[in-house]
Amino acid sequence: MARRKILLLGALFGALHGCATKAPPKAASVRRDGSSDASVRLAVMPADSLLFADVATALDEQLGHARVAGARTAIRAKVSMEVAQLALECVSPTDECYSQVGRYLQVDRLLWGQITRDAPSAGVKVTVVLLDVARGMQLGRAEEVFPKNDVAIGGLRQLVDRASKPPPALPPEPLSQRERTP
């Protein structure tokens, strides 16, 4: 009887010890097709679905398919930007706080969307942001107010595309008269 208890306790200890030493699961990643070996790490954060669950689900789907220059894979974060900010105790809607979230996630770029009710029109306001974490600045931002949820869902692809595309390069400035003469 005592031997049976010892064997049972040994097996239980071994099982618990095995569970406690497992490595955490790897983050889910989305493969992108591209020709270069991209070193840009992108995190896609889900939208908060508290008010507009159907729009948030559709936005998350579109964010997951976004093409960001230099990023071949994207890590899908488990929490929204708002939840991540609360966890890091940096709740200001500033690029610095957003960068803090990106540094915590160890990524180079953050892509996320926010959905709110637009007070003046009672419509749905959707904002999509692409942030350069190291520079602490937005590379892209698109915002639109839609009259209804179904109209918002239909316009999300274009909104995500506008935010995730880099701005066109500025043309070089023309040479001044002095620079043209030898």
Helix/strand layout:
Elements lengths: L1 H19 L8 E3 L10 E4 L7 H12 L8 E4 L4 H8 L6 H11 L3 E10 L4 E10 L4 E10 L2 H16 L12 H4 L2
Parallel strand pairs: 2-3, 2-4
Antiparallel strand pairs: 1-3, 4-5, 5-6
Tag the structure with descriptive keywords.
6 helices; 182 residues; six-stranded mixed sheet; 23% strand; Rossmann fold; disordered C terminus; globular; 6 strands; single chain; alpha/beta
Short description:
This protein has 182 residues and is α/β, with parallel strands linked by helices. The chain has helices at residues 2-20, 53-64, 81-88, 95-105, 149-164, 177-180; strands at 29-31, 42-45, 73-76, 109-118, 123-132, 137-146.
Mean pLDDT: 80
End-to-end CA span: 102 Å
Proportion in β-strands: 15-25%
SSE pattern = HEEHEHHEEEHH
- The name of the CATH architecture is 3-Layer(aba) Sandwich
- Extract low-pLDDT stretches: 11-38, 175-182
Number of domains: 1
Strand line-up across the major sheet = 1-3-2-4-5-6
Question: Which CATH first-tier class would you pick?
Answer: Alpha Beta
The portion of residues assigned to helices is 25-40%
* Count of separate DSSP helical elements: 6
> What coarse outline follows from CA principal-axis ratios?
globular
Q: Say what oligomer this is.
A: single chain
Description:
The protein has one domain (29-164): Rossmann fold. Helices cover 38% and strands 23% of the residues. It has helices at 2-20, 53-64, 81-88, 95-105, 149-164, 177-180; strands at 29-31, 42-45, 73-76, 109-118, 123-132, 137-146. A six-stranded mixed β-sheet has the order 1-3-2-4-5-6. β5 and β6 (137-146) form a beta hairpin. The relative contact order is 0.14.
